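Key result, reporting period 2: structure in, sequence out.
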């Protein structure tokens, strides 16, 4: 079992930056094998992939965030971060940390990001 806890959401003006963090706890064996990701869900919309980092370090990003968001992980601390720059109102959503291992998805509770002037 793996537990994920996000932090770092909040209210920011357009053009601003936020940094989200996700801390994993539980099975170290599973955490070390996990691919990590960030998803988001805006009101009335489906949850969508924002960014993902695979075990080998490869990453992929949604087209809407390429060049603005950066995903990274710290294996020693079992944490993952999402640095979000040049934020836009359309980035407003609840952001969820995701871990995938052994055919199982693990989710955090979500953190609200609101981009508004």
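The corresponding designed sequence is given below.
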């Amino acid at each position: 079992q793996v537990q994920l806890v996000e932090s770092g959401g909040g209210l920011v003006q357009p053009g601003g930056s936020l940094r989200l963090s996700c801390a994993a706890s539980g099975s170290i064996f599973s955490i070390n094998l996990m691919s990590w990701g960030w998803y988001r869900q805006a009101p009335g919309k489906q949850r969508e992939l924002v960014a993902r980092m695979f075990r080998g370090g490869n990453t992929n990003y949604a087209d809407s965030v390429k060049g603005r968001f950066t995903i990274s992980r710290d294996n020693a601390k079992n944490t993952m971060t999402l640095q979000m720059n040049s934020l836009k109102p359309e980035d407003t959503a609840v952001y969820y940390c995701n871990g995938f291992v052994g055919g199982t998805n693990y989710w955090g509770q979500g953190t609200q990001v609101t981009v508004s002037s």
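The first helix runs from residue 28 to 33. The chain is about 5% helix and 55% strand. This case is discussed further under Risks and Mitigation.
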